[in-house]
Amino acid sequence: MTIAGAPVGRELGQYYLRKELGEPGSGKDKADGSCMIVVDTDAPLDARNLKRLAARALLGVARTGSSASNGSGDAIAFSTAAQVRIHTSDKAFARTVDVLTNDAMSPLFLAAIEATEEAVYNSMFKATTMTGNGHTVEALPIEKTVEILKEHRVI
Fold first, then answer.
1. 34 catalytic residue (yes or no)
2. Local confidence band at 120 (pLDDT 50, 70, 90 cut-offs)
3. 123 carries an active-site annotation
4. Is residue 79 among the annotated active site residues?
5. Can you give the pTM of this predicted structure?
6. Is 130 helix (H, G, I), strand (E, B) or coil?
């Protein structure tokens, strides 16, 4: 886990594929779990740009230090803009819809990246220790994390 460039996971000794976890293929280095990202926007976007927006949201997960392992998850995006909704009662054979152009997408891409990164951090800081199926995953130690961030002059 990385926060604003500070190697929090490494300094906590909690990161994927540590040498002490075992040899690759031993099962001890398996990254389980998944993360589903849902991007909701009121920007009038067509299906192509919604797909591009969802892909950019994954960069927000990458900023947190994700290794994008096999179980890393997926992202989807949708628009709530009235003009892009399909109207089933519409009997017309064609219609004109105003959507944002590709040139207007960069600010939305940045917003999706930053919002996703922030959502990951929020979930990590609010998480509690969990036990299930004989395994325990400890919550992020907040005080130690804050110390690491101070050492790296992040806060």
1. yes
2. very high
3. no
4. no
5. 0.82
6. strand
